[in-house]
Amino acid sequence: MNDIFENNKQNLLLINEIVANYRKQNFFVGSLKLSALLKNINSVVEVIFSREDCRDLAGELEQILPALLQAQGNQDYILQADILEGDLLPLLQKIQIKLQEDDTPQVSDFLENNMLILKEKNERLYKVLQNVQGDNAKYVIASAINGQPTVQARNGNRCFFCIAR
Predict the structure, then answer these.
(1) What is the per-residue pLDDT across 15-68, written as a single tens digit (0 to 9) for each?
(2) Is the pLDDT confidence value at 104 over 50?
(3) 55-73 and 89-102 are packed helices; what angle lies between their axes, rounded to 10 degrees?
(4) Each residue of 64-95: pLDDT tens digit?
(5) Are the C-beta atoms of 22 and 30 separated by less than 8 Å?
């Protein structure tokens, strides 16, 4: 199951690359990456269609893929980007969460190493992140879509993922 998780993680990254290329009107590179995505997505599709508890995800996929292939056949790159970004990406993210819930993948723990580096480079931020414990903490460590730890900020009852700028 860990291989499927990694394949799907690659698919998530590929979608972002494809959309970026199509939006920049670099259709050739985007189409090459789309071909790689469609080849790579097979293993994920097989798992989703074989599992009873993933029927709803399989149903969504059955609607998205034909529309994507039709847009590809029509060389409608803008529609392809929209389908990838608006439909397929959220679905693959749901699948990634499902895979993570079922069989928590063994991902490298970069947190400790990153904290040591951060202590040297930005001690102020290091101290903030050291205090992410408890229910009233302004920042908490949460799992990202790929299973890696990330920082989530709290403001009252609302939570936000931090974006590096």
Answers:
(1) 999 999 999 999 999 999 999 998 888 888 888 888 888 889 989 999 999 999
(2) no
(3) 150
(4) 999 999 999 999 999 999 999 999 999 999 88
(5) yes
Q: Are 135 and 83 in contact (CB under 8 A)?
A: no
What is the DSSP track for 12-30? Answer: HHHHHHHHHHHHTT-HHHH
Q: How far apart are CA 30 and CA 24, in angstroms?
A: 9
Angstrom CA distances, 58 to 45, 48, 53, 64, 87, stand at 8, 6, 10, 10, 13
Amino acid 119 reads K
At 80, the amino acid letter reads Q
Listing from the earlier edge strand, what are the strands of the sheet with 139-143?
Answer: 139-143, 149-155, 158-161
Q: ∠ CA(29), CA(43), CA(54), 5° rounding?
A: 120
Q: In the numeric block, which tokens belong to residue 81?
A: 């980007």
The CA-CA-CA angle for residues 63, 61, 67, to 5°, reads: 40
Q: Provide the whole-model pTM.
A: 0.62
Q: Which run of H or of E encompasses 146?
A: none
